[in-house]
Structure formats: C-alpha cells, structure tokens
Amino acid sequence: MIASPARSSYHTVVVGAGIIGLYTAYHLAHAGAGPILVLDRGFLSGGASGRNGGGVRQQWETPATIRLARESVAAYRRFGREFGYNIWFRQSGYVFVAEDEGQLARLRRVNAVVRGEGLVSRVIDAAEVLRLVPGIRPDAIIGGTYLRTDGILYPFPALWGLYEAVRALGVEVLLGAEVTGIHAPGGRVAAVETSLGRIATEHCVNAAGGWSGELSRRAGLDVPNVATRHEILATEPLKPFLDPMVVRVSDGLYFSQTMRGEVVGGIAPSTTLATRLGMGSSLDFLARMSRGLVGLFPQFRSLRVLRAWSGYYDDTPDGFPVIGTDARLPGFVHANGFGGHGFMLAPASAQRVARAVLGEPSDLDPHLFGPQRFSEPGRALPTERLQLG
Amino acid sequence: MSGMPSASSPEPPRVPHVGSPPRKGRLPLLQRSIRYHRPRAPFCGVGYCTNCLVRVDGRTNVRACQEGFDLPRMKTTANAWPSPSFDLLGIVDVVFPRGIDTLRGFRRPAAFTSLYQRVVRRLSGYDDPPSEAAQQPPPASIRRIVEVAVVGGGVSGSAAADALLRSGVGSVAVLDRDARASTMSGAEMLGRTTAVFLPPPDPAAARPFALAATNDSGQGVEVRARSVIVATGGYDASLLFSGNDRPGVLTAEGAFALSAPGPPPFNRAVVFGGGERAREVLARFPSRISAVAAPGDVNPDLTRLASEQGVPLYPRSLVLSTVGRRRVRGLTLRTRSDGPSFRLGADAIILAHRRVPHPQLFFQAGALMQWRSRAAAYFPIVSETGQTTVPGLYAVGEAAGVSDPAAAVRCAQLTATSIGQRNSSAPSSSNPHSLDLPGELEGYYRELLRQPRGSGKWIACPCEDVLLHEVEDAERRGYRGIEVIKRYTGLGTGLCQGRYCLPDAILLLSILEQRRPSEVGYITQRPPVLPTSLGALASFADSPDEKEAS
Ligand SMILES: Cc1cc2nc3c(=O)[nH]c(=O)nc-3n(C[C@H](O)[C@H](O)[C@H](O)COP(=O)(O)OP(=O)(O)OC[C@H]3O[C@@H](n4cnc5c(N)ncnc54)[C@H](O)[C@@H]3O)c2cc1C
Ligand code: FES
User: Fold this and answer.
1) DSSP secondary-structure letter at B397?
2) Within 10 Å of residue A35's Cβ, how many Cβ atoms?
3) pLDDT at res. B7
4) Within its chain, how far is the Cα of B8 from the centroid?
5) Are B240 and B491 in contact (CB under 8 A)?
6) Whose CA is closest to B467, among B240, B251, B249?
7) Phi-psi region of B230 (alpha: psi -120 to 50; beta: other; left: phi over 0)
8) pLDDT, tens digit, for every residue of A82-138?
9) Is residue B42 part of a domain?
10) If you measure from the C-alpha of residue B525 to the centroid of ligand 2, how many angstroms do you get, rounded to a whole number?
11) What is the pLDDT of residue A275?
C-alpha cells in the first residue's frame, strides 16, 4: 500500500530520504522553494543514515571540510530545540590514537590545520589518552590528538525530527518508491521515472547515498563514486565508562559508548569483503573487530557482542563529497559521496545543496566539491585523507 | 519433562546445568530492569530473557539460569542499589507511570544538556564493564570439515544424525549447547557449543556452509559443511498485559526449569493456555495450579485433567493485568466478547499458550520464511524432506513446525535419508502469504487493545523497557513496519535481540497497521544469535586448529 504523489509536477524531487535528502528538503522548504517530493525505495532509516556510528568530529585534514563540520556541530547543538527530537548530541570529544611516531606525526599535522581554524584540539601523550579512555592498555598507544567539542549523537531521532519537520512544511515524503531513471528530453531534467510512473520536476537531487553512483548512471552520467560496505557492531549495554569516541589511526578501528551504554564500533573493511554480501555481516569483520578491541582492552574478553550490521559508504577518489549541479545535465544536483562521514557533515552540506538547486551562489570551492572536478585535466588538488572512524 | 522435541543449540538448555534453584518456593529477585528499575525475577529459565542477569566471578550480565541459580556465588546487584529487593532508583518507576520520553524529552533548557546526559547514561546499562583480565588468552579456534552439520542434539537432531550415519553419510558433526562432547556412533558431538552465525552459503565452495559457533571454553568453533540441518527447536512465547514483566510471570519452560530439581517457586499459579502445553504444566504441578485460563476454547484433554484435579477453567479470557507491585499476587482477567472482568488470587502466571521456533539461523542464511497464523510465528518454508529455500539447508523438528515428538523423529529420518541419497527437492510453496489466515491470537490481541489500560505499565519489550503506548504513539505519528518501529522505540534491540518481545510485537503491529503480519516484516536477524564474547569472536582471527572428518 504505497501512496501516490499528490501532484503531477514538482519543483524538486529529492531521491533518498536519508539525512542528506531530508536536510536538503528541509532547507529547500524553509527557503520557500516550490513543491518538493522526497522519494525513497526503502523504509525510513534503511540507508546508511540508520546504520552509522553517530560520530561527529571537526578534526579533518583540510580547512574546507573542517568548516562544514564545524557549522554542522552548531546545527546539531540546536537540533532538539529546532526539531522537537532529542538526538542526545554528547560533546565529549574524539580521541585519535597513534601507535608509532609516524602516525603521531600525521596527527600533529592534522592538529595544526584544525587549530588554524580556531578549534582547540590538542596533541596528547599516552598518560592523557589513558585518562580519557580508562582501561585502555597503556603500551598499546603512544599518544594522539583530542578535540573536546567533537562528539557522538543518536542518529535515529535526527531522522524522525527532520521527517516530521519537512512534512509539516508541506514536503511530501513517499517511502517504497524507486527512481529508475531521469527523463531529460532537451538535455535538462524534466521528470523522474519511478516505480509510481513518471513525475514531472524541474530539479532532481541525487541524495541516494551508497546508491548515488547507480542513480547517476541511470541518468546517463559517468561518475567515480564507489559503494563500499562497512560493518559495525554493538556490545551489551554497560554502565557509563567511556566518554569520547576513540579512533585508531593505523587500521581505522573506532568505538564509542552510546547513551544506552552499548559499545558501538567498526574497523576499516578488508578489501576483499568490502563490496560483497549485500547488507550482511561477516565472520571476518566480527573476528578482526573483536581482536582489535581485546587488544586494547584485554579485560573485555568476556564482554559480549549483541549484534552486528552493515551499511554502505559512498566513496569518492579524493575523499571530498560531491555537491552541486552537474553541468552535463542541468537540473540534476549531486548531494553524495560522503563516505563514512555524511551524518556529521549533513546540516551544512545540505544547505549548499539547496543553494545549488535554487541557483544561488555557493561558498564551496568547486575544485574540491564540484561534480566537474573529476574531469578537470591534469588536476593536482588537495585530498581529504582522514577517512577514519 | 515437557514432552516436546528437545530444544537444542542455539536454543538454551531446558534444565540448568548445575546446582539447584532457590528452595523457598519463591522466585528470587535478581535484578532491576534497565530503565525503570522494575523488579525482575526469572521468566524463561532457559537463557533467552533478560530477567536474571547477575555478576559471577567478575563476569557481568551473566544469566543466572545458565549457571544453575547458584545464588551464593552470584552478586545479585545488576542495576540495583543497594539490592534488587530494595532499590532506591525503583522510584523512577513510580514517578514516571507513563514512562520517560527520551525521544522528545530532556531538550530544555539547553544549559541542562550535559546534566541530563549524565543522569540518563547512569540509568542505562545493567552493570559495569568487566574489569578483570582473563588469566590466559583463549585457545585458538577450531575448525571441523564435515559432510553434514546438525545444529541441535535434541530428539529430532539426534534422530537426524543417527539416520545420516545409517544412510552412509561419512562425516557428521552435531552441535549442542547442553550436551557434553562425545562421539556417537561416528558423529562427532560438539558439546556445550552454541551456533551463533550461519551466513548464506557460498555455492562456489566445496563446503558451501561456514557455520560459526562458540563453546564453553570461550573458543570459536567453525564447521564447514556441505549441508546443515537446523534442529534448534522452539520456545514458549510471552504475552502482553499490564505488569507482564512482574516477578511471577513465567513461561512453561521457565516453570519446568525452575522446578528441576527442587520445589517449584510458586504455590498457586494460574496456567494460561488451552492446549497440550497447558496440559503438560497442569500434569507436572498437580497441587500448585489454582486455575487454567485460556485465550480461546480449552481442548478436551486439558478439560478432563482440570476436572480430575478440581482446577477451575476460564476459557476465552483476556489477561488484563497482574496484581501486586513487587510480585504477582493475583491477576485481573475479563471474559472475552466484553464479558465481566474478574480477579484470581495467584502467585504466578505460567504462559503455555503458544510455542514459536527459533528463526535466527534460517533468517541469517537467507531462507524464505512463512508466517503461520495458527502458531502466530515465522517458520522456514520447507519441502517434505525438510529442505528450505536455501539449497543444502534443512529444518527438522519444532524448528520446522513439527511439534509432536514421534512425528518429528520420522521427519528428521526422512530428511537424513534424502540427504544420504542426494535427492532432496526444493520446497514447492514459496509464497510467504499462503497460510496467512487470521489465527486465534490475532482476535485476542484485537480485543485486548480496545480494553481500558489502567494505571500499570504494559511492557512491549522488557529488555529495553519499551511501553505499549510508545509503540502506538509511533504508529500514530506515521512510522510503520517493524524495522522502523524498532529504530523508533528500541523494541527488539535488547539483550535478547527480540526473542522475548518480537512474536507479540509482530501481531501487535499487524493490528495497529491493519495489514497482515507477513507485511509488517521481521527484524533482520543479525549475528550473533546469542550474545557472544569478544574473546571467542577474536579467536576466529587466528588460524584455526583444523580437523577434517574422514
Ligand atoms: C557502518 C557505518 C558507520 C558510519 N559511521 C558514521 C559516523 O560515525 N559519522 C558520520 O557522520 N557518518 C557515518 N557514516 C556515514 C553516514 O551514515 C552516511 O554518510 C550518511 O548517512 C549518508 O546519508 P545519505 O542520506 O546520503 O544516504 P542514506 O542514508 O544511505 O540514504 C540514501 C537513501 O536513498 C535511497 N535510494 C537509493 N537509490 C534510490 C533510488 N533509485 N530510488 C529511490 N530511493 C533510493 C535508499 O533507499 C536510502 O534510503 C557511517 C556509515 C556506515 C555504513
Ligand atoms: S525483550 Fe529483548 S529485545 Fe525486546
């Protein structure tokens, strides 16, 4: 029983009801754009936005990413008042930990960039890591960096709050409806082809997360986005013992303790399994992740894993998301390529997406974020490589 | 004993391993619930619910039933201060009769954010993290390479293993959570071993199935097999009413487990159920049952036994609520079709109205499931030979919906023979809706939801203390389907991973959403089947100690 669209034509059709799509619809509706329709072929929270670790950090390698993250932190601080749902955004910091001097040197460089942006991150020694992460094996780390205003949030209420807010603003959200193609007779978006039939629209926002590459290709566009499966697990709920999110530089092992007390975390996937097995889990992940945690906390051998799940990162070659109108197909706006960090960048990024839809000038460097950057000849531009946690 | 085909791995044992239950004829209060600090006592008695978490030898969140209720060894302070019978935080339950709204509450004033967070975090979780490092690292994982792996060594699993060996299948491994390790006429019994993860088979591999399990020594066990027979049995499901989590609310299995050996921890219990399972309970506790109530009609055998014992029958009854704060002191019921409501004095209610299979391994492996309305549960779709829709994966016994022990044995033999002769057929019906006619319990719940709610809490998910009205509120706000309701309310995300709450929740949603239970969906079954230690899982990361059976 799927409802059908209330109108025959829209100003904007947003594909994907994840955090990016919903935030984009919110900014558009708020700016008073015409009728907006959000389509998702799955259920609300079925994409990466309902499967992530809830980490929100501002420690990045490039000032451009730091600015988006910083603005998003401010938005998440207001979220409860603005949207009526409590996302339990807990600013108790991110600790990056290094196991050798090489890794620490890298973190020092990151720290300098972050401080350059006016954030008070710090390089910390092993003793301080121990203080922030009680119980961690002292000889497992030599030091790291720490930014107290980073934090974690509970992703689901963010989706509920946005879902209810956009509907209250008149946005239609149809779940269980798939976009199968783009109708662009004059080389410009005129309609989207969907499982509910053709729906006329002036703009189409590709906020399809891990499936954004698929959607772009359905629109006849060649894009470099790659979907990578990432797994994650949660342990039994414990009384609070850990405040910050912890990320190990060497293998991307990350974990935090949620408001509910579960230890939630993941690790960079082994390459062979990254694109296989749908949304399933693998023993390989369970084993590597458990070994990582037990290596840091030998006393946790008896701690039990409750469940494991997985989702897709939407990765780009340079580590920056893709935000803006595709010059090859006017009306087709990208809001994708967020890798493992779309939640923490969503509020600020979606605002830029909305501006692109409305044809307003953007403050984002097109060489870093624009869809055209991948076809620029002889490009030697910065990359965002702190793709951890 | 229960007379059902014996349950088996990954299902918890029917009888505790060692020691004996408390002898006072009372259920021990072992812990407080996660949010509202409600008193909780053993419910299922066999290791799936979360009502008996204790700390033993520095290990946290251990289920007391799994250690034989060896109370002197156990620290019964999980989530309670100073003690489970008198817990100061129990005030939370009284102060918030409608529950605490963590979704929309605690947002104002902004200056209180971190205070709120500290308080709510403090209320979450059952126990502190383990603090003592194990003396020595766990042994390396072991791997067995066999023709057929049988999960569950109960009546049907053993029958299948025997028949496999007789029909000339070379190598068989049986995994069982209770049994001790042994070799039974050629088959290796991997005792005290719990299957936790059965990924979909890899058709390109010589042994497509890679079943992961853990054993009592905290070791990972991997079994590579050509075929897998799942004989994991079923369990007695829960029931929704006001105060349905009170100490004294028990399942039939729980009542059996808590009374073997030793006296039952109740003196005048009401049995709920109108069929064979309820009759078993009545037969087992002749002098301690004060009444039998049933959701519908009562079958003749049960009627006969009840009249022999002089136990009154209350057919077609809704259970509305328990009486008593700390323990069950009575029950309020109402005769169905808006009949009169009435009270029964009782110190326990024993739920024996339905059994449901353990569906986890089937879901994990990707087998198609079918909702059967009469049982109000999901079962794997199988052919006559027990073949599921995943080639090489079979279901036997109660896991396949065959509850009569003799029939279960015959079916298991048929399955084994067909594997031996390699002539298994795919199941013909793959329509998950085919048996989707309304069952008795659907009508029961439809009527129940129309009843006035009273003042007590209706706990839709005891692990996470999710209340019925929270589920209804989510539906009213437009959230639909079990996957979304799970994420919205937290129902099904607790320590038992939904075993306790899901069977009823699916029925509930189908009524609230006015669609068939099969359309409400089922929560994707994530590994592990049961909470599994990081140590055991980590042992899979090293190269295993491998053995190929001849
Ligand atoms: C395991 C894991 C951990 C993570 N941890 C973090 C973290 O700690 N912090 C952080 O900031 N980020 C994290 N991320 C990343 C973050 O979750 C994502 O970047 C973010 O959720 C992306 O949001 P989205 O709205 O773009 O995509 P999604 O939430 O995936 O939404 C896309 C939606 O598009 C729909 N869709 C796709 N194709 C179509 C179509 N053709 N028609 C209709 N609908 C379609 C899908 O059904 C889906 O619902 C993590 C991700 C994973 C997988
Ligand atoms: S009762 Fe255990 S998850 Fe709901």
Assistant:
1) G
2) 17
3) 35
4) 12
5) no
6) B240
7) beta
8) 999 999 999 999 999 999 999 999 999 999 999 999 999 999 999 999 999 999 999
9) yes
10) 13
11) 59
pLDDT score recorded for residue B18: 36
Contact call for residues A53 and A232 (beta carbons, < 8 A) = yes
Is A363 at the interface with chain B, CB within 8 A?
no
Q: List the domain range (segments joined by +) for residue B68.
A: 1-133
Q: Are strands B172-175 and B142-151 parallel, antiparallel or unpaired?
A: parallel
| Domains of chain A as residue ranges with CATH | 9-51+156-225+317-375 (3.50.50.60), 91-150+227-315 (3.30.9.10)
Q: Tell me whether residue B311 is in a domain.
A: no
Closest C-alpha among A309, A137, A281, A291 to residue B220: A291
Nearest-Cα distance to chain B for A98, in Å, is 22
Q: Are A326 and A217 in contact (CB under 8 A)?
A: no
The 10s digit of each residue's pLDDT in B51-110 is 998 888 877 888 888 888 888 888 766 788 888 888 888 999 999 999 999 999 999 999
Please measure the distance between the N-terminal and C-terminal CA atoms of chain A and give it in whole angstroms. 39
Min Cα separation A90/chain B (Å): 7
Question: Ligand 1 pocket: which of A23, A338, A388 to mutate (most atoms <8 Å of CB)?
Answer: A338
- Closest partner residue to B129 (CB to CB) among A279, A300, A307 is A300
CA-nearest of A264, A239, A192 to A16 is A192
Q: For ligand 1, is residue A16 a contact (CB within 6 Å)?
A: yes
A209-268 tens-digit pLDDT: 999 999 999 999 999 999 999 999 999 999 999 999 999 999 999 999 999 999 999 999
Residues of B in contact with A43 (CB under 8 A): 481, 483-484
Q: State whether the beta carbon of B84 lies less than 6 angstroms from ligand 2.
A: no
- Nearest chain A residue to B50 by CA distance is A236
d(CA B211, CA A290): 18
Rounded Cα distance, A27 and A15, in Å: 15
ipTM: 0.95
Contact between residue A319 and residue A383 where contact means Cβ atoms under 8 Å apart: yes
Q: How far is the C-alpha of B274 from the C-alpha of B292, rounded, in Å?
A: 8
Q: What are phi and psi of B449, to 5 degrees?
A: -65, -15
Cα B450 versus chain centre, distance: 27
Buried b (16+ CB within 10 A) or exposed e, B372-395: bbebbbbbbbbbebbbbbbebbbb
Rounded CA separation B415/B176 (Å): 19
According to the model, what pLDDT value does residue B5 have? 35
What domain count does chain B have?
1
A60 touches chain B (CB under 8 A): no
Task: Determine, for residues A299 and B197 on separate chains, whether the beta-carbon distance falls below 8 Å.
Answer: no
Q: Does any domain span residue B243? A: no
User: Which residue intervals of B25-141 are DSSP H helices?
Assistant: 91-95, 113-123
| Sign, Cα dihedral of A73, A75, A80, A85 | negative
Tokens of residue A299, six digits: 């006393």
Reading the block at residue B367, the tokens are 């087998």
Residue type, B15: V
Q: Are B465 and B33 in contact (CB under 8 A)?
A: yes
- DSSP category for residue A378: T
Q: In chain B, which stretches have pLDDT less than 50?
A: 1-23, 430-436
What per-residue string of b and e applies to B37-68 under the rule 16 or more CB within 10 Å gives b? bbbbbbbbbbbbbbbbbbbbeebbbbbbbbbb
Task: Report pLDDT for B19.
Answer: 39
Probe site for chain B from A79, A236, A256, A296 (most B CB atoms < 10 A): A236
The burial class, CB within 10 Å (0-12 / 13-18 / 19+), for A14 is buried
| Among B249, B461, B506, residue to substitute to test ligand 2 (most atoms within 8 Å of Cβ) | B461
Strand, helix or coil for residue B200: coil
Cβ-defined contact of B532 to A305 (cutoff 8 Å) = yes
Are B190 and B445 within 8 A, CB to CB?
Answer: no
